[in-house]
Write a structure and sequence with these properties.
The protein has three helices and four strands, in the order H-H-E-H-E-E-E. By secondary structure, the protein is an alpha+beta fold. It has a four-stranded antiparallel β-sheet.
């Protein structure tokens, strides 16, 4: 006579414990995905700030005579932005001073997201300051959502270059 045990399946408690373990794992994966998305968004915003800063630095290098003359000094995108002189489409082109105004107008439009510009950074503000020896600093501040608390914090990108 052989004694064989017949297994009839899992008990309800084993199934409940398995569901709890699987749901905790899925919640952990969702949390990792959210942190990944937040980190990617922060990296995107930093790369946009870098692009905007280098754009203005290249504009100033191309018009270095007016940059050294002081046309770009103390410029703030939240302050008074020069009007577009409209010389880019004219047959004669822009003078160096008009080009400086065009550069500041277009840069402020991109940083602020005004006119035809697209707001690349939320709540952004750009400034240009001049130090000793024609050393310029371009600062871009923007608002970024925090990692765990969803609080907002100001983030700054700074670019120093000389002419």
């Amino acid at each position: 006579m052989s004694l064989t045990k017949k297994q009839s399946g899992f008990t309800l408690i084993e199934i409940m414990i398995t569901l709890i373990i699987v749901s905790i794992g899925l919640l952990g994966m969702a949390s990792l995905q959210m942190n990944s998305l937040r980190s990617n968004q922060g990296a995107y915003l930093r790369s946009q700030a870098s692009m905007l800063s280098y754009d203005m630095a290249d504009r100033m290098r191309a018009n270095s005579a007016r940059a050294i003359a002081g046309d770009y000094n103390g410029f703030d995108t939240d302050g008074t932005v020069p009007a577009d002189p409209g010389c880019m489409s004219s047959a004669t082109g822009c003078s160096a001073a008009q080009q400086a105004n065009t550069d500041m107008f277009e840069w402020a439009s991109r940083v602020n997201g005004t006119g035809a510009g697209i707001a690349l950074l939320p709540g952004a503000q750009g400034t240009i300051t001049r130090g000793a020896g024609n050393l310029f600093t371009i600062l871009i501040d923007w608002t970024e959502t925090g990692d765990t608390t969803n609080a907002t914090a100001n983030t700054t990108f700074s670019l120093n270059f000389g002419l």
